[in-house]
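Progress note, sequence design subtask.
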């Protein structure tokens, strides 16, 4: 079973300098949702942003230990336009 902090730390290792928030959506340690704001997303399409987040988690996705990860990804500019800081 995984926990939200583990998922968060893997994402941060791959995308240093990002703002990452992860929540376990079911309490079972295999379904999570994450909000990631990263300068690495600037100029990238949403599918490319999601690929960057999924990449460091492939081992756990392939094994099924991480069954689902719902993503909301933003560049800092996109996040700021939404009125967040």
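Output:
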């Amino acid at each position: 079973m995984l926990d939200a902090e583990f998922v968060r730390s893997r994402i941060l290792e791959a995308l240093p300098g990002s703002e990452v928030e992860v929540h376990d959506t079911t309490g079972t340690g295999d379904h999570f949702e994450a909000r990631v704001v990263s300068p690495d997303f600037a100029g990238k399409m949403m599918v490319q942003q999601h690929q960057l987040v999924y990449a460091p988690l492939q081992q756990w996705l392939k094994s099924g230990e991480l069954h689902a990860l719902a993503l909301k990804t933003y560049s800092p500019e996109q996040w700021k336009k939404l009125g967040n800081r």
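The chain is about 40% helix and 25% strand. Work on this subtask will continue into the next period as scheduled.
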